[in-house]
Amino acid sequence: MDFNLTDDRRMLADTLARYLADKYTIEHRNEVAYEMPCHDPAKWDELADLGALYALAPEDAGGFGGTGFDISVVFEALGRALCPEPVLAALLSSRLLGAAGADQEALLTGGTKYAAALSELDAPYDIAGISCAAEARGDGHVLSGRKTAVYGAQVADVLLVAARLDGKVALFEVQAGDAQVVGYAMIDGGGAAEVLLDDTSARLLIADAAAAIEAALNAGIVALCAEAVGAMEVAHDTTLDYLRQRKQFGVPIGKFQVLQHRAVDMLTEIEQSRSITIKAAAELDGPQATRFAAMAKNMIGRAARLVAEEAIQMHGGIAMTWEYPVSHYAKRLVMLDHQLGDTDYHLAKVMAGNAAA
Amino acid sequence: MDLSFSAEDRAFQDEVRGWLADNLPAHISDAVRSGGELTKPMMEEWHALLNSRGWLAVTWPVEFGGPGWTPVQKHIFEEECCRAYAPRIVPFGLNMLGPVLIKFGTRAQQEYYLPRILDGTDWWCQGYSEPGAGSDLASLKTRAVRDGDEYVINGQKTWTTLGQHANKIFCLVRTDPDVKQQEGISFVLVDLDTPGIEMRPIRLIEGGHEVNEVFFTDVRVPVANLVGEENKGWTIAKYLLTHERTGIAGVGFSMQALEEVKALARKVRRGSGRLIDEPLFAARIAQAEIDLEAMKITNLRMLFKAQEQGAPGPETSILKIKGTVIHQELKDLARRALGPAAAPFPGHVSDGNMMFGPEDTAHNAARYFNNRKTSIFGGSNEIQRNILTKTMLEL
Ligand SMILES: Cc1cc2nc3c(=O)[nH]c(=O)nc-3n(C[C@H](O)[C@H](O)[C@H](O)COP(=O)(O)OP(=O)(O)OC[C@H]3O[C@@H](n4cnc5c(N)ncnc54)[C@H](O)[C@@H]3O)c2cc1C
Asked: Is residue B165 domain-shared with residue B288, that is, in the same domain?
């Protein structure tokens, strides 16, 4: 047994953490994160140069990582900095391109930005419920429908779109310029878009893509969980600092036992969150990946909300302000639950798995 | 035991409901329903309408222009206002300063200020909190030094809600630094046009501008603006905290939020079904509803007791704690129900025609974040627990 990171991963973690702390300060982050295009091209290139994208893909796909632990290392660092860059979009797309056996060199260099257009308004989490329709036309296909909350699509060059073809969920490649892409900033920072397809020409990548999409989503879930762990730790550390500094009634508020115990409860939930994320990462390429990803996402949904709400409450008014970084951590932590399946969705999955067993 | 309202109270309820149906302007209730920020003209228009009916200063005695309602009637009024999506009354002049002037003010102060509160000439804001004095309000430092017929004020107030709309601020200031903290505080009225005052906006978590910080540099205020006696301001502050506590549970707002969440969960689709058919989400709604059903009765029980005893007791802290938690939970559900459609930053969607989820839900996530304030302000839920520990448990 060994819970240490390998040297390579430790180096990557340190490099990313240092870079983000220096170059993607919270002030800069807040300037980028809430205004379109929610993306800093120079920083994106630098992140790619540091290997943040190569680490997401296995060697046979041209990367140097691609395991659950590689993904976790990258996203925990991004989470600590609340980095709004579309790395989740790159990860999902890398997995999908990998499953299609397509070349992803341009993705991994950061030169071409991809986004995975999977969810729809009426089928936000369960891709089996989508209604976007594909149809053969000439020697290619056309797609019609609407994709919702496509993370990173506000700046993407290429979209990987899930659509129904002959009763199956298939995966297509669409040039972003061929679709109507309505981008927006999100309340917790970072960008997404609604993608409107109307007889939009598309190239078929995978005819029966359900398994490939599920695997990509599992990787995305591990990423979000790791991101949450990073963000939770910062929110907790900041809260502890504040408990030590802030005085009311002549003493640091950290002397009030009720706050001490709640800070301990936060710590406990963060430790549990880290553990379940490690488990999901370890299982990512195995047969139980979906079950453990679901467990992780459920626990993270609960823990991240607790940490966000308690961090605000224990700070008092100051953490309700835009100027104080904890407010942005809290928003990210809560809104993470709206991505790739929420607490209830994943709990239901675990329940269904148990019932079927 | 009889849980029903009396015949008079039911008649009153019908009267309020009818009046609201006829008089609450649609553009105002629509704005409330949408969850966005209300404009100053909207709030002023609504105040003026209530004032024309004599229903604006619900906490004031009849001789000062109040409607003379019982606690139960006030409760009914608040509930009906919520049901109709009327705006909350801006409380600072009407529910805070008004009762203070009625109890502690001079005749001249009452005659000058109260009518101006009613007709909207003055918009008051509350200058209690300071950067260093939140829960420990008595440690406030803003200094007022007597100089002839004037006080000279230096210091800073913060968290001043809707100060950007106000022309006046009532402040707790330190007039004697050499005695026990609580004994050196005074309550003064300050015109925001006085030289030396600077107000700066504070942006809140969801991006809105609802609070401010106010800086005082050699601000000269006539001694006539002192309310009550010098150095007796703490008595006034405490009076305010215990005086007006109907509505503290926010039951009407939670009922409104519950109805919204139910309606939303019926509208939102999840694959081939509706969100309300998903057992886990349905359980969350039911759980909140059960808590709220109990809270309604807890609220009425405490109201009844206040009516019998003439004043609310310390147990009203229970209403503040549980009331805010239930409301926050419902706001959590309203956000959660939308799934990814909760994510867009309100107003940031570049194509105005784009609909994200059902109508009037664009602000659901923003409201959830903004409402985290309710367990912090007005005495945080931790401070309320301390009060209960001391007064009811006697620990
Ligand atoms: C949106 C908003 C609007 C507001 N509007 C106004 C306004 O119009 N006018 C005005 O004067 N003020 C206003 N306030 C200020 C509000 O009353 C204070 O925020 C509140 O009193 C808490 O003070 P604080 O923020 O300084 O937190 P602190 O007092 O520093 O508290 C920090 C944390 O410590 C806890 N704590 C403190 N003491 C104890 C204790 N003894 N035991 C256990 N826990 C403790 C608190 O509960 C909290 O969790 C507003 C605040 C907000 C957020």
From this structure: no
pLDDT at position B243 over 80: no
Print the domain residue range for B283: 250-391
The helix (H) or strand (E) run that includes residue B222 is strand B209-222
Residues B161 and B79 in one domain: no
**Using 50, 70 and 90 to split pLDDT, how confident is the model at A322?**
very high
CB A222 within 8 A of CB A281: yes
Q: Are residues B79 and B178 in the same domain?
A: no
User: Where does chain A show beta strands of DSSP type E?
Assistant: 114-117, 133-137, 140-151, 158-165, 168-175, 180-185, 191-206, 247-248, 251-252
Query: pLDDT per residue over B28-85, tens digit each?
Result: 999 999 888 899 999 999 999 999 999 999 989 999 999 999 888 999 999 999 999 9
| Calpha distance B277→B114 (Å, rounded) | 53
Q: Decide if B243 is inside a domain.
A: no
Contacts of A320 in chain B (CB under 8 A): 204-205, 372-373, 376
* C-beta of residue A12 within 8 angstroms of C-beta of residue A51: yes
Classify strands B168-174 and B124-127 as parallel, antiparallel or unpaired: parallel
Give A-chain residues touching B129 at CB under 8 angstroms: 317
Tell me the three state secondary structure of residue B108.
helix
Q: Which residues of B are catalytic?
A: 244
Nearest atom, ligand 1, residue B382 CA: 47
Sign of CA dihedral B307, B310, B314, B320: positive
Angstrom distance (rounded) from CA A117 to CA A97 = 13
The full DSSP string for B174-216 is: ES-TTS-GGGGEEEEEEETTSTTEEEEEEEBTTS-EEEEEEEE
Segments making up each domain of chain A, as ranges? 7-108, 114-209, 212-356
Residue B236 has pLDDT above 90, yes or no: yes
The complex's ipTM works out to: 0.97
CA distances from A101 to A19, A64, A104, A271, A355 (A): 32, 17, 9, 37, 35
Query: Does residue A313's CB lie within 6 angstroms of at least one atom of ligand 1?
Result: yes
A200-223: string of b/e by CB count within 10 Å (b at 16+)?
A: bbbebbbeebeebbebbbbbbbbb
Interchain contact, B349 vs A184, CB within 8 Å: yes
Among B231, B240, B154, smallest CA distance to B186 is for B231
CATH superfamily of the A7-108 domain:
Acyl-CoA dehydrogenase/oxidase, N-terminal domain (1.10.540.10)
A313·B375 Cβ contact <8 A? yes
Measured between alpha carbons, how far is B259 from B354 in angstroms, rounded to an integer?
A: 25
Which atom of ligand 1 lies closest to the CA of A320?
A: 53
Instruction: Summarize pLDDT for A129-174 with one digit per residue, the tens.
Output: 999 999 999 999 999 999 999 999 999 999 999 999 999 999 999 9
Handedness of CA A310, A311, A316, A321 (dihedral sign): negative
